[in-house]
Design brief:
The protein is α/β, with parallel strands linked by helices. It folds into 2 domains: 27-112, Leucine Dehydrogenase, chain A, domain 1 (Rossmann fold, 3-Layer(aba) Sandwich); 137-259, 3-Layer(aba) Sandwich (Rossmann fold). It has helices spanning 8-26, 41-57, 72-83, 103-107, 121-128, 137-148, 168-177, 192-197, 242-247, 258-273, and strands at 4-5, 31-37, 60-66, 90-93, 157-161, 181-185, 201-204, 222-225, 229-230, 236-237, 250-251. The chain has a 6-stranded parallel β-sheet with strand order 1-11-8-7-5-6. A 3-stranded parallel β-sheet has the order 3-2-4, sandwiched between helices. Strands 9-10 form a two-stranded antiparallel ribbon. It is globular, with a radius of gyration of 19 Å.
Length: 282
C-alpha cells in the first residue's frame, strides 16, 4: 500500500482561508511586529515568507531589521516598546539571535498576551497546565496537520526524537494533552532504533540527516519529519532516510510538510492575539 503524503501546503491553505474569513467578518486587522537581528540568510527567507503569508490573509505585518551588532539592551528596549504599543497585537522575534544576545532575556520582555510564538515562561507554564493561549507554532502545526488528515492521536504511542525548547519539549506536552502515550528520545538515548520501532507516531526534530533508518519503522507508523538538512547534492532533506518513508502509512515530505504548517499556526496565533476566533473544524 502506498504511503499517504501529509501535504502541509494543502492543509496550510485551508487554515489561511479560515483566517481570511475571520478577519473579513470581524473588521479588525491584526498587526504583527516581526523583529530580525542580523543578516542570517535563512532567517531573512523565513521573515520574508511570513510577511507574504500575512499580506495574503489581511494581517498587517511590520518588520524591524536591526544590525548584527545591536546590543541586548537596545533590542529589549524595542521589544518593551512594542509590548506597550496598543496598536500591535502580536510580537515575533526571529531566532536564532546573535551569540552576544541572551535569548531568554529578550523573550521575557514580550508581554505573554502578545507572544505569538508561545515561548515566554508564562505561556510555557500555562501550556503545562493545559491552558493554551498560544500553541508553539511547529508543534501546533503538527497536531493540526494530523487532524486535517484524520491521523488518530488518542491512545497511540508518540515517540519524539529531539528535546529542543522550540519543538521537542512542547510537542511532548501537546501530545500528552491530546491523550497520546509519549516518549522523548535524545542524544543520550540508548536503543534509539528499538524505541522508534515501538512508535505509532514518530516525530523527528534533530537536524541530523539519515538519523531515522528504514529498520526503525514498523508498519502503519506515521512519520512527522521536522528536520531541515541538505543532502550531498545540496537538496533539502529531513532527518529520515527516504526508504523509511516507504515503510510508513503516512509521512510529511521535506520540504512541503511541517514548514507550511508552522507558518500557518503563526497566522492563527496572530489573529488570536487580536481577539479573533478561528474554528478549525476538520
Amino acid at each position: 500500500m502506498m504511503s499517504l503524503i501529509l501535504d502541509g501546503n494543502h492543509a496550510a491553505s485551508a487554515i489561511k482561508h479560515k483566517v481570511r474569513e475571520a478577519i473579513a467578518e470581524s473588521g479588525t486587522q491584526p498587526r504583527l511586529a516581526v523583529v530580525l537581528v542580523g543578516h542570517d540568510p535563512a532567517s531573512k527567507i523565513y521573515v520574508r515568507n511570513k510577511a507574504k503569508d500575512c499580506e495574503q490573509c489581511g494581517i498587517d505585518s511590520v518588520t524591524y531589521v536591526l544590525p548584527e551588532d545591536t546590543s541586548e539592551e537596545k533590542l529589549v528596549e524595542l521589544i518593551r516598546s512594542l509590548s506597550n504599543d496598543d496598536s500591535v497585537h502580536g510580537i515575533l522575534v526571529q531566532l536564532p539571535l546573535p551569540k552576544h544576545i541572551n535569548k531568554d532575556h529578550v523573550i521575557s520582555a514580550i508581554k505573554p498576551e502578545k507572544d505569538v510564538d508561545g515561548f515566554t515562561k508564562a505561556n510555557t507554564m500555562a501550556m503545562l497546565d493545559g491552558k493554551f493561549r498560544f500553541v508553539p507554532c511547529t508543534p501546533g502545526g503538527i497536531i493540526e496537520l494530523m487532524r486535517f488528515y484524520k491521523i488518530p492521536i488518542v491512545g497511540r504511542h508518540c515517540v519524539i526524537v529531539g528535546r529542543s525548547d522550540i519543538v521537542g519539549k512542547p510537542m511532548a506536552t501537546i501530545a500528552l494533552w491530546n491523550n497520546a502515550t509519549t516518549t522523548i528520545c535524545h542524544s543520550h538515548t540508548r536503543n534509539l532504533g528499538g524505541i522508534c520501532k515501538s512508535a505509532d507516531i514518530l516525530i523527528s526534530a534533530t537536524g541530523r540527516k539519515n538519523l531515522i533508518k528504514p529498520e526503525f519503522i514498523k508498519p502503519n507508523t506515521t512519520i512527522i519529519d521536522v528536520g531541515m538538512n541538505r543532502d550531498k547534492d545540496g537538496k533539502l532533506c529531513g532527518d529520515c532516510n527516504p526508504e523509511a518513508y516507504e515503510r510508513s502509512s503516512a509521512y510529511t515530505p521535506v520540504p512541503g510538510g511541517v514548514g507550511p504548517m508552522t507558518r500557518a499556526m503563526l497566522l492563527l496565533n496572530a489573529v488570536t492575539a487580536a481577539g479573533l476566533k478561528v474554528r478549525l473544524d476538520w
